TrEMBL record:
Alphabetical list of Pfam families matching this protein: ABC_tran
Coiled-coil regions, chain positions: none
Function: Part of the ABC transporter FtsEX involved in cellular division.
Protein name from the UniProt record: Cell division ATP-binding protein FtsE
Domain ABC transporter: 2-228
Subunit composition and interactions: Homodimer. Forms a membrane-associated complex with FtsX.
Localisation: Cell membrane
InterPro entries found in the cross-reference section: AAA+_ATPase, ABC_transporter-like_ATP-bd, ABC_transporter-like_CS, ABC_transpr_LolD-like, Cell_div_FtsE, P-loop_NTPase
Keyword Cell membrane among UniProt keywords: yes
UniProt family annotation: Belongs to the ABC transporter superfamily.
GO biological process: cell division
MF-aspect GO terms: ATP binding
Organism expressing this protein natively: Lacticaseibacillus suilingensis
Length: 228
């Protein structure tokens, strides 16, 4: 599903955020990406959905090789990627239904396909009764559920979640994790950057630890150690 070889990312200010990182992710895996602030987690995540490009090395996600992918291919590549952000990034003037439907409209889905698919993912995240609400009328946890529904409405192969529980209380975070694990159980690859020690230790999955821009740990069922 994902292959990174000897990836390095150097910013224009001279900071090297990622150093010689190689990684393989199989279809259907669930990965945590952990590490202290400034370790390179966000840079890694952004490179995976081509928000940033590596300075050197190669990245391949599915059939797309970033070193040969043209600008016109990027929107097609992103159709197979769902992205969940810490701050939700919902469109405030659109209803819950419209926020999710918009993700299908931009890829020119057929009108007759949009409504049943949107209602299906809303049921999956437990918000089928909130279709006409606006983001401002929802709790933080509900807004994140809408964000997840929007990320999966086009049935992506990979969902990348960047601190999806960062602004949520523990009970709400558990609910978000329930949804992500359910999506993963259906075959979607999940890559989740997080600082949430309790969730990682309570729900073990493959764990990648980044420190100083390097991959320092890759462990199945890994957990936060006392030193982390």
């Amino acid at each position: 599903m994902i292959q990174m070889k000897n990836v390095m990312k150097k910013y224009t200010n001279g900071v090297i955020a990622i150093k010689d990182l190689s990684l393989t992710v199989d279809p259907g895996e669930f990965l945590y990406v952990i590490g202290p602030s400034g370790a390179g987690k966000s840079t890694l995540i952004k490179m995976l959905y081509h928000e940033l490009v590596p300075t050197s090395g190669t990245i391949q996600v599915g059939k797309y090789d970033f070193s040969t992918m043209s600008d016109k291919d990027v929107p097609y590549f992103r159709r197979g990627i769902g992205i969940v952000f810490q701050d939700f990034k919902l469109l405030p003037r659109l209803t819950v239904y419209e926020n999710i439907a918009y993700a299908m409209e931009v890829i020119e889905a057929r009108d007759e396909d949009i409504k049943p698919r949107v209602l299906h993912v809303l049921k999956l995240v437990g918000l089928e009764q909130k279709v006409r609400r606006f983001p401002s009328e929802l709790s933080g946890g509900e807004q994140q559920r809408v964000s997840i529904a929007r990320a999966i409405v086009n049935a992506p192969d990979v969902v990348i979640a960047d601190e999806p529980t960062g602004n949520l209380d523990p009970d709400t975070s558990d609910g978000i994790m329930d949804i992500l694990e359910r999506i993963n159980a259906d075959g979607t690859t999940i890559i989740m950057a997080t600082h949430n020690r309790e969730l990682v230790n309570a729900r073990p999955h493959r764990l990648l630890e980044i420190a100083g821009g390097r991959l320092v740990r890759d462990e199945q069922g890994g957990s936060y150690s006392d030193e982390d």
